[in-house]
Amino acid sequence: MKQSMTLIPTLREVPSDAEIKSHQLLFRAGFIRQNASGVYSYLPLGKRVLHNIEQIVREEMDDTGAVELLMPALQAAELWQESGRWYTYGPELMRLKDRHGREFSLGATHEEVITSLVRDEVKSYKKLPLTLYQIQTKFRDEKRPRFGLLRGREFIMKDAYSFHASQSSLDEIYELLFQAYTNVFMRCNLDFRAVIADSGAMGGKDTHEFMVLSDVGEDTIAYSDTSNYAANIEMAPVVVNYEKAEEEEKTLEKVLTENQRTIEEVSSFLKVDSTKCIKSLLFKVDEKYVLVLTRGDHEVNDIKLKNLFEAGSVELADPEVTTEVLGCPIGSLGPINVEQVEIVADFAVQYIANGVCGANEENYHYVNVNPQRDIKVSRFADLRFIQEGDPSPDGQGKILFAKGIEVGHVFKLGTRYSEAMGATYLDENGKAQPMIMGCYGIGVSRTMAAVAEQFNDEKGLVWPANIAPFELHLIAINMKDEEQAKLANELYSFFKQERFEVLFDDRAERPGVKFADSDLIGLPIRITVGKKAVEGIVELKVRKTGEMLEIHKDQLLDTVKQLLSNL
Fold this sequence. Notes:
Elements: H1 21-28, E1 32-36, E2 39-42, H2 44-63, E3 67-68, E4 74-76, H3 77-83, E5 95-97, E6 103-106, H4 111-121, E7 130-139, E8 154-164, H5 167-187, E9 192-196, E10 205-213, E11 219-224, E12 230-232, E13 253-256, H6 263-270, E14 278-285, E15 288-295, H7 302-308, E16 314-316, H8 319-326, E17 342-346, E18 355-358, E19 364-369, H9 371-374, E20 379-381, E21 399-414, H10 416-421, E22 424-426, E23 432-434, E24 436-443, H11 444-454, E25 456-457, E26 460-461, E27 472-476, H12 482-497, E28 502-505, H13 511-521, E29 525-529, E30 537-542, E31 548-552, H14 553-565
Helix pairs in contact: 1-11, 2-5, 2-11
Protein name: Proline--tRNA ligase
Family: Belongs to the class-II aminoacyl-tRNA synthetase family. ProS type 1 subfamily.
InterPro entries: aa-tRNA-synt_IIb, aa-tRNA-synth_II, aa-tRNA-synth_II/BPL/LPL, Anticodon-bd, Anticodon-bd_dom_sf, Pro-tRNA-ligase_IIa, Pro-tRNA-synth_IIa_bac-type, Pro-tRNA-Synthase_IIa_type1
């Protein structure tokens, strides 16, 4: 491709709203442009990177026996109503009506569509297992789109769905797809981890996220310092062996704590450690309110709370609701003598001796609180976030944290959708059985951003060879020089004939502009035709290492092949 004939609008300045490297560089290097908040156009270079990632995904998916199809982005509300998610998915689902008043959504995901399709077309166990996938644009009305392609309202995703007659069949395909995803991200040269995860609105159990390690990641990975254990912090169980202090239980006493509202303020005022304080928070779990207790130095894990109650939704009650339900502002909230809501507590709470909690009266707290004596807890459970330094759940080492960007997610859905939507097959005995399902997603556009986030330097992007929009950047210093123009055009034709992807900078720009743009775009190898063109000698530069060589055109092909094989 001749650079004079394509659209690569590079910028020298960093866009004011671009917070992270990938967003800044993809914008500056002319790969993307923003149309609206969270909505982007992929310019020619960006489209080529997406194509390369999609090709890797297709190859790995096809190797598992999965088959590609394409489903509509516009989905009838009736399908979502069948599954029940029309009412529970939340405001991220973009909803609209046609001219006849019929309700639709723009596809945030495709469980309902694929389930209805297979329900109508597959009737016998002889047609199972079946794995179908697509690569398509998805839509989610994110409350706060940010970080460029990492959190948008319109994005490109590969989603796959498998259908089975037995759990063992699902397990087998799940492992195949898990390995395929591992292969995809390895081929994209990413530093990533597969971590235990929560299925969220998707439903189902046994799920893993594929996380690219990055300081700008919005997810926290809890991992062992000595083993392969890794989990999203939401899902990491706490296996601390708590011990109750050996001290005599004292008499419960209410004390004045005027204007002391936070755990830090109360513990400092009463001269007690935060580990002896009890934090009380009111949550709405589906349609009922629950008071949740943790130790003062711990934080409530709402995913664990949701799983404890097998709830569809969990949200922290706002201050006004808390006051309305319990008759007390948050700063003095406590569990003693609370009868109107259920009380659940983290395991650590039951080991507190002579602790502190709110008195459900403004400016007052209780001291000498002993939970098993003074609080009516319906059940104790693991309800807190794991912390750095806690024992690893697999019994090996201690927990450390890292930030991660989610680029893939695999689920065992079970019969969550097939039962709700009547997707059954006839077994060997002619009896109708619900299909067992799996679901597997890769964020293609997000993977592009994750690669850009990990592969860059102070000059610009540094694309791995198999992801790069072009393998070679051919630059003619001066196209008005007859010898340079002749050799550059000769090399352009030669490399195209040899099936290389070449971007030929034939523009009438100054050398400094061409070199700056080349570094910014970040193609693996740059070949510069300059003053030694008359001798058939060019300059070759490896973008990743900065290595530079002067080489005769006759040795160029072998050298380029060798260098690309290592990039």
